[in-house]
Amino acid sequence: MNLYEQAQLANRHKKSGKNKAVVKYMVRALIHAAQFKRMSAYFHQGNRLKLFEKQPNFVTKCITPYLRDGFTKDQRVDILINHYQWFEQVFTAQAQCAIYQDNVVLCELSIDEERYFVTLSFERNSRKEGELTLSLCDEQHNKYYVIAFTYIAGDFYIGCMQGGTNDNGFSRKFTKAFYGLRPKSFMVETM
Predict the structure, then answer these.
(1) pLDDT tens readout for residues 35-49
(2) Predicted model pTM
(3) In the record, which residues are listed under signal peptide (predicted)?
């Protein structure tokens, strides 16, 4: 696939400004050719292709700010490649596909006869904060707490942690059911 085709594919979701986005993609790819080639070579194969379904511009992730401002472009490439090497060692191919396409339920919690789930997924919304997302949600997939993280050299780097916009008393109910453990603390401990 040539550069123009990659740019078209990466911006297929755009409704307006598509031509500008294609040109921008191509210019960035040419200016940052070394990083772009490493990203393309590693991520355009196997199960990793599923990354592009939710994040069509995935290979440009090393060119834009990611996790924090202090990383160089080469460091970002190394971080991304190392994270996915770890990911492929830890999870089976079937689990990888489930995480890329939807989510994997890690555990189920019952609180006042309602079911809640801790899930692991790859989310488009947290593309600058981390590669994987740990979520605490209900049966209707309403997310109460979300942590986006990346595995870096033996540690988990948490890029963001967000609570839901309206928890309708969930935090109080959760804290009472788990003997004073707050949902935010629970999510960090779950990591």
Answers:
(1) 999 999 999 888 898
(2) 0.87
(3) none
